[in-house]
Amino acid sequence: MKGNHRIIIQNKRIRYDFTIRRNLTVIQGNSATGKTTLIAMIQEYDENGSASGIQLTSDKKCTTLSGQRWETELSSIKDSIIFIDEGNKFIFGDRFASLIQHTDNYYVIVTRESIPSLPYSTKEIYEIRNSGKYGRLKQTYNEFFPLYPSDLPTKKDVPKIIITEDSNISLSKP
């Protein structure tokens, strides 16, 4: 699976609209920002379709992965966008990293911790922010914002001299 994939998922009170650009996307952020709600909506729609009251628009199938049978479930998922919520410790293992390299799926992983076994880009680490001013009874619209700025230093930004402090160096004369 290659390219960008736009996903819109909503019910009567909340809406998420975002684009997945790479095969590994990480969503981070504080508690109560909507990360688990997003995963729960994907799972509910996957299990019950439109009868869930959720509308999902995507050019690829969206599903979730969790639990002890994750490896068996993963082997049957093809050409999909897989959402994984925090709390699934298998995402930190080498076995998971090895298995997903041989699939054609995209992965959206919610976690507050780094995942050293996975090669994801800092440009694909997002947080969810509510946009606009909405009251409790109005629909909330959520957007993904890059967690790290896109204007990271380049080769031409390399300094000519770096001055550091080292407390182990003696400045007394011999």
What would you note in describing this structure?
The chain has 174 residues and is α/β, with parallel strands linked by helices. The protein has one domain (5-157). It is built from three helices and nine strands; from the N terminus they run βββαββαβαβββ. The chain has a nine-stranded mixed sheet with strand order 4-1-2-9-8-3-7-6-5, covered by helices on one side. Strand 1 (5-10) and strand 2 (14-20) form a beta hairpin. The longest helix is centred in the N-terminal third of the chain and has 14 residues, at 35-48. It is globular and about 65 Å long.
| Major sheet attributes | 9 strands, mixed
In the sheet with the most strands, the strands line up as 4-1-2-9-8-3-7-6-5
The count of β-strands is 9
Low-confidence stretches: 133-140
In whole angstroms, the N-to-C terminal distance is 66 Å
Inertia-based shape: globular
Mean pLDDT: 83
> Helices and strands, in N-to-C order?
EEEHEEHEHEEE
Number of domains: 1
User: How is the quaternary structure best described?
Assistant: single chain
Give the helix tally: 3
Q: Specify the structural class.
A: alpha/beta
Helix content: 10-25%
Q: Proportion of β residues?
A: 25-35%
Radius of gyration: 21 Å
